[in-house]
Structures are given as C-alpha cells and as structure tokens.
C-alpha cells in the first residue's frame, strides 16, 4: 500500500533574527505560496530498500537512484513503476546525467568515478589522484561543458586514503583530475548553476554550505558562506532556490535566506527534481524514496 504523508513547516527569518535562532523557530505552517503544488501530498514509492541515495533525472524525467548496501541502481519510470537498472555498481552513491545521456556515478565502494553509457557500457573516468585511489566518492555535479565535480569524504570505518576529505574536478575530456577544494572537514552535496559560473558545496562536517565562483579551467575562487547548514545531498529549482537534505529538506532562496522545511518521515540523504515536467521532487531517505509535486521545476533537467 502506498503511504501518503505531508508535513510542511515554515521557518521564519528576518534581518534582525540571527540564523541560529531562526533555525529554532518552528511555526508548523506552509512553505511559501507557489513553491509546492496546491493540495500536494508526500508519496512513498513502492519497494523496500537498505539505504537509498543519489537520485538523478534523465532528459525525459525518469529518475535513477541507488541502494548502496544492495550494490544496485534502480529506475523510476514516468509510468510510476520502479525497476532494477544495474547490479554490481561498485557501491554506487551519487548519480548525475551528462548532456550525452551518460549516467555518471560515484563508485564509493571502489573509490572511483564511472560513466554508464545508454548501452550499459561502464567506463572509469577518474580512478586515482597522485597515485592513490579516492576515499569514497559521494556526490557530484556535471557542468555545462561535461566536466565533473565530485566530493570525496570518509564515512563509517573507511580509511582516509587521500590524507583528507576533498573536492575534485574532472575536465570534459576526462584526461586528468584536479583537486579544487582542500580546506573542508567533510564535503558532501554539491550543485552548480546552469550557466556553470557558480558552484555550491556543503561541508557536512563543519555544518556549513559555501558558494564558489567557477573559473574557466574549472578551478574555484571567491569562497563565500551561503548558509550555516551542512547537508547530505542538494538540488536547485529554476528560481534559484536550494533544497538541502538535512534532518528534513531545508529550502533556501538564492541569497541564502531560509524559506522553510519539507518534513520527511525518514532522514533524507539526497534530493532531485524529475517527472515529465520536471516538477516532481524526489527524496531518497534511508529505506524509502518519497515524491512531492511542486509548483515549479528543478534546474537539473
């Protein structure tokens, strides 16, 4: 049976209210008008999973997500069905589609990044940095030119192979790997703007999210604090609002003002937009995946 649940609450903020106090203001109200579709309900997709992550939409709006312990990638199709897409994924975590329709995957279990072609062929695109494998690639974003940014944190009992937890960039031709952030405690979720000029990266370990300007060669500059929240995954809508997967889904506008929270029954791990019109919010949350109809589309189409 499909479970339905909806909890939306508004966290009021203002110029005179410090962010730390605003985070404690829970008024059990709605998100701002025009963000969630009228009458929308949170819907749990069918299926039981061990630990879901990495939702990503293809060009048509089908959504793919991972079950990390099961070593599997699933596909939600536009007809509402969920089916296995790939087995033996190398411990795949975060996913994202490039413009060619290739599914780029963080193979956390193998310490690699890989590209999965529409034919199903898998090609490594980043296997090591300075002669060592990566810690455990976690999340990624593909820029307009096809370059790949990915985070490489360490969770659980994994070994810190790279001497720290950093962020890397692979250029469009996949010919090299550049370390672009080396001063975070534990980087995790990230997403850029459609023009490729700005990148948002969360430091989950420091409980902060930052905004960077992207240089022509893919390196980053002008690090600026975006908000005092560190999250798991994140996504962005066409208005520039950011959705951060933390205890629930926390929504900020483009200036870093906290707009509200979407309550999720289980703690979220990641979030993306999908569906035929790109207006369905998909939330991976531990043993489940939830959807919510929105009034606006996501940018990741």
Describe the structure.
The chain is an all-beta fold. It has one domain (about 5-295): TolB, C-terminal domain (Neuraminidase), CATH 2.120.10. The chain is built from one helix and 26 strands. It has one helix at about 20, and strands at about 5, 5-10, 40-45, 50-55, 65, 70-75, 80-85, 90-95, 105, 110-115, 120-125, 140, 150, 165-170, 180, 185-190, 200-205, 210-215, 220-225, 235, 240-245, 250, 260-265, 270-275, 280-285, 290-295. The strands form six sheets. The protein has a five-stranded antiparallel beta sheet with strand order 1-3-26-25-24, with no helix packed on it. A five-stranded antiparallel beta sheet has the order 2-23-22-21-20, with no helix packed on it. Strand 25 (about 280-285) and strand 26 (about 290-295) form a beta hairpin. It starts with a strand and ends in an 8-residue tail after the last strand. Mean pLDDT is about 90; it is low at about 1-5 and about 10-30.
Structural class: mainly beta
Q: How many E strands? A: 26
Top CATH class? Mainly Beta
Kindly estimate the percentage of residues that lie in beta strands according to DSSP. Answer: 35-45%
Full CATH superfamily name: TolB, C-terminal domain
Secondary structure layout plus pairing:
Blueprint: E1 4-5, E2 7-9, H1 19-22, E3 42-44, E4 52-57, E5 63-67, E6 72-76, E7 82-87, E8 92-97, E9 103-107, E10 112-116, E11 122-126, E12 140-142, E13 148-152, E14 166-170, E15 178-181, E16 187-192, E17 198-203, E18 208-214, E19 220-227, E20 234-236, E21 242-245, E22 249-252, E23 258-263, E24 270-274, E25 280-285, E26 288-293
Antiparallel strand pairs: 1-3, 2-23, 3-26, 4-5, 5-6, 6-7, 8-9, 9-10, 10-11, 12-13, 13-14, 14-15, 16-17, 17-18, 18-19, 20-21, 21-22, 22-23, 24-25, 25-26
């Amino acid at each position: 049976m499909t479970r339905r649940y909806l909890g939306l609450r508004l966290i009021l903020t203002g110029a005179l209210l410090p962010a730390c106090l605003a985070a404690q203001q829970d008024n059990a109200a709605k998100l701002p008008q025009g963000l969630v579709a009228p009458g929308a309900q949170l819907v749990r997709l069918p299926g039981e999973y061990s630990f879901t992550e990495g939702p990503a939409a293809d060009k048509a709006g089908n959504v793919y997500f991972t079950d990390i312990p099961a070593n599997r990638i699933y596909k939600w199709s536009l007809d509402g069905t969920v089916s296995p897409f790939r087995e033996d994924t190398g411990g795949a975590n975060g996913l994202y589609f490039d413009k060619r329709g290739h599914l780029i995957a963080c193979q956390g279990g193998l310490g690699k990044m890989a590209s999965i072609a529409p034919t199903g062929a898998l090609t490594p695109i980043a296997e090591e940095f300075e002669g060592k494998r990566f810690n455990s690639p976690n999340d990624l974003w593909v820029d307009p030119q096809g370059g790949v940014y990915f985070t490489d944190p360490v969770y659980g009992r994994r070994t810190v192979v790279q001497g720290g937890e950093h962020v890397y960039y692979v250029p469009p031709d996949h010919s090299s790997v550049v370390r672009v952030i080396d001063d975070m405690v534990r980087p995790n979720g990230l997403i850029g703007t459609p023009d490729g000029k700005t990148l948002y990266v969360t430091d989950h370990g420091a409980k902060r999210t930052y905004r960077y300007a992207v240089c022509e060669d893919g390196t980053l500059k002008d690090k600026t604090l975006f908000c005092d929240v560190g999250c798991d995954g994140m996504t962005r809508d066409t208005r520039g609002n950011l959705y951060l997967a933390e205890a629930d889904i926390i929504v900020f506008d483009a200036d870093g003002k906290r707009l509200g929270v979407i309550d999720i029954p289980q703690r979220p791990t990641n979030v993306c937009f999908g569906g035929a019109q790109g207006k369905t919010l998909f939330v991976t949350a531990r043993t489940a995946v939830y959807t919510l109809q929105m009034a606006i589309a996501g940018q990741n189409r």
